[in-house]
Amino acid sequence: MFPDGTDVRRLAEDHIKRKELLHKTCKAGPEENFFEDAREAVTEGNQFLIDDVHRLLYCPIEKVGCSFWKRVFVLLKDQQQGKSVFNLSGVAVHRRWGLFNTSASKPFLLKYFYLQSYTKFLFVRDPYERLFSGYIDKIFTPSYQTQGLSEHIRQHFGENLQPAAMGDRKLANQTTGSFSCVTSVSFSEFCRYVTNDIGVAVNAHFTPMYAKCLPCHVGYDFVGKMETFRDDTNFILTAAGVNVTSVLGPDSSFQTENDLSIMRDVTNRVFDVIISDTRKCFHKANMLRRTWATFQIRGYLSIHKKFPVSDEEAENLTSEQFLNLAMKAYENSGSREECMRQRKTAILEAFYNIPRSLLKKVEFFVQKDCLLFGYECNVDQRFPENQAPQPVFKFDTMI
């Protein structure tokens, strides 16, 4: 048992079942998609993070706890056990990418050795939820990618929507298709982008999980899931001989610390983006309202916690002041279960709000991930017609 009473034997059985499903699904696929060894993965797929002390090999996938695990590897690399992972800035960790020990620069034989000899793991999540999370994090919420991605998507898949309350859309030339200061993209536009069949490249944050980590080529020892993130994290680190408490802190505070850490990182990132916005594309009050809405969509703040200041007051807020307002609302947002239901509602609302024909294309896009990792992907099961929830977030009015 873990200190919180989690049954370790049950966790071990869960991981065995996940590995068995992977093996069965890969074997049932085309022969060229399955290899008994890891030669293909040596030259293809994602960059693995390496910890030589604990002989760990991690395949990071965007929007599946990737930032969290990068922090863990920083602590392991710097031998900073005793310093909580939640005290590290996610922005700072991302900027350290060039200092990480990765498989990218290793010679072929050494890569092969790692894949054969180290404990290999990845984390996955419900593919529909990952897609929605990518949209919220990289497009809806101001980020370093928002401007470029939004312009790219609108240019190829734009719906020619009128600017909305939180939009800041400024089309420079509607006849030539050139765009200026496009900071808003609808979820429908986004889904057309990721499912496109016209050869437009899709950003790595949104590509399928199987394509990044090649689970049919790599014999992963552990397959963690976002739905059981804390338990799987404890299990994998414990199996590797890491003192879990010294890295993550007490189990009782894990979820709260993780939530607040993400809120801090998002806030700092948003203010960095606004400050560095030399083109003046981002209207600060609008961006802070959208960030507040992001915290509600993610289930950190109750939908009943309205943005607490006027637009004029928002223009003068510092990152610390905004974060303090958000944290105060977090502490008074009711039960976690209620906030998680709110998050599920946001996901349902987003997918029900796109055309059914496009939803079918999304189903095809996520199908391999669903089969490999054990998720339901049939849209008639996930999003039955005539069962759309009452609009709560009204995304079209937020962009």
UniProtKB/TrEMBL annotation:
Class of this enzyme: transferase
UniProt-annotated location(s): Golgi apparatus membrane
Record family assignment: Belongs to the sulfotransferase 2 family.
GO molecular function list: sulfotransferase activity
InterPro entries from the UniProt entry: Carb_sulfotrans_8-10, Sulfotransferase
Name of the protein in its database record: Carbohydrate sulfotransferase
EC number: 2.8.2.-
GO biological process, one term: carbohydrate biosynthetic process
Species this chain originates from: Pomacea canaliculata (Golden apple snail)
UniProt key word NAD: no
Listed GO CC annotations: Golgi membrane
Pfam hit, one: Sulfotransfer_2
Keyword annotations of the record: Carbohydrate metabolism, Glycoprotein, Golgi apparatus, Membrane, Signal-anchor, Transferase, Transmembrane, Transmembrane helix
Lipid bilayer topology: Single-pass type II membrane protein
Primary localization class, coarse: Golgi
Highest rank taxon of the organism: Eukaryota
